[in-house]
Amino acid sequence: MSLEKFLHKAVSSWMSAEGPDSDIILSSRIRLARNLRNHKFTILFSNEEAREILLKVQEVTRQGAFYPYGDMELLEIDEMKALEKRVLVEKHLISPQLAENSSNGGVVLSEQEDISIMVNEEDHIRIQCIFPGFQLMAALERANAIDDVLEEKIDYAFDEQLGYLTSCPTNVGTGLRASVMVHLPGLILTRQMNRIIPAINQLGLVVRGIYGEGSEALGNIFQISNQVTLGKSEEDIVGDLMSVVRQIIAQERSAREALVKTSNIQLEDRVFRSYGILANSRIIETKEAAECLSDVRLGIDAGYINHLSKNILNELMILTQPGFLQLYAGGPLRPAERDIKRAALIRERLKLDKRDSEEEIL
């Protein structure tokens, strides 16, 4: 498989498209947790009951109920190889928990990969919609529409006082988890992030790494999401998160402007040193690659670099993960081999962008 074909098939629509405020907000995600009435929660149910739930969701998919949202297909986790599951995790299409506990698990994926419905993860059903840029309300509308389709066919576990019932008490109520993936190099470089994170937490929000709970904030990329799901409407939860994120956007832009104004040559040097490492390295580890990609993306946004795609951070942060590297290589790789393959893939990707830019000029 050539690199061009690999990129075409590997990158989801939200990674390659631009949205509002996409210089800072890489993506917006809505996740709805749902369970079926008269069925034990996943921590207690039998394999037979899990299979029954999977088949119910599969039947809804086969009936074409999701037709307005494009072709959608249910994939059974049990039938996937370990590498295939890892790639889906790296693309944010399934959770690590679903990949690891695969007995009668499944995922319904849209052709554009902006919709995924996990089956038999922590809850019976988890609906996820991802949009590029800052589009939380649009993602909420889409998730609610998918939820309505399922609720017409499946009887949910719902309480008039508590709302939707979930395996984890923190999700009871709306079952909603709204999040944005943000790129905040300005706040990191100006050393403001350590002050901002506690303030965000006090507002009932949480800041996590690129793959959510327990993950590291590689390349200055963070996930910011709500913690409260009970006692508020979905619109209020999303509205509160949007209000805080707008303030973070303003602070990040202010930090970037200050860096350009007070440390212009130092910032430009940092950007091009990182570009040089990416363009020439023969061996590069995940963390160093993420840091350099963050610098280069900042350089693109600041106008220092104009021959690379703005989406390069989104793409290469996914394409350089261990699962993708091994898929690209056609088989398992030891850590040292992955570092070599990662460097080669980045060099080739940068050459593609440079070539396309030169062709546009001609």
TrEMBL record:
Regulation (activators, inhibitors): Appears to be allosterically activated by the binding of pArg-containing polypeptides to the pArg-binding pocket localized in the C-terminal domain of McsB.
Superkingdom: Bacteria
Reaction catalyzed: L-arginyl-[protein] + ATP = N(omega)-phospho-L-arginyl-[protein] + ADP + H(+)
PROSITE patterns: PHOSPHAGEN_KINASE, PHOSPHAGEN_KINASE_C
GO molecular function, one term: protein arginine kinase activity
Motif RDXXRA motif of the pArg binding pocket involved in allosteric regulation boundaries: 338-343
Family matches, as InterPro entries: Arg_Kinase (IPR023660), ATP-guanido_PTrfase (IPR000749), ATP-guanido_PTrfase_AS (IPR022415), ATP-guanido_PTrfase_cat (IPR022414), Gln_synth/guanido_kin_cat_dom (IPR014746)
Keywords from the named record: Allosteric enzyme, ATP-binding, Kinase, Nucleotide-binding, Transferase
Pfam family, one: ATP-gua_Ptrans
Record-listed ATP binding positions: 27-31, 92, 126, 177-181, 208-213
EC number per UniProt: 2.7.14.1
Phosphagen kinase C-terminal domain residues: 24-255
Function of the molecule: Catalyzes the specific phosphorylation of arginine residues in a large number of proteins. Is part of the bacterial stress response system. Protein arginine phosphorylation has a physiologically important role and is involved in the regulation of many critical cellular processes, such as protein homeostasis, motility, competence, and stringent and stress responses, by regulating gene expression and protein activity.
HAMAP family referenced in this protein's UniProt entry, alphabetically: Prot_Arg_kinase (MF_00602)
Record family assignment: Belongs to the ATP:guanido phosphotransferase family.
Listed name of the protein: Protein-arginine kinase
Source species: Lederbergia graminis
